[in-house]
């Protein structure tokens, strides 16, 4: 998680730690559902990449 850029950390925490729906996550971050989906996708990709290089 520390290797993720700060913009991606809250989305991962809200979606996967707090187990919020994508709509609830978007509301919490005050972004659109489409933006939340894109951010989750990018954050997961970054997290996967950082874990595979360890």
From TrEMBL:
SUPFAM superfamilies: Sigma3 and sigma4 domains of RNA polymerase sigma factors. GO terms for biological process: DNA-templated transcription initiation. Gene3D superfamilies: Winged helix-like DNA-binding domain superfamily/Winged helix DNA-binding domain (1.10.10.10). InterPro entries: RNA_pol_sigma70_r4_t2, RNA_pol_sigma_r3/r4-like, WH-like_DNA-bd_sf. Pfam families: Sigma70_r4_2. Residues 1-47 form the RNA polymerase sigma factor 70 region 4 type domain. This is RNA polymerase sigma factor 70 region 4 type 2 domain-containing protein. It comes from the Bacteria. GO terms for molecular function: DNA binding; sigma factor activity.
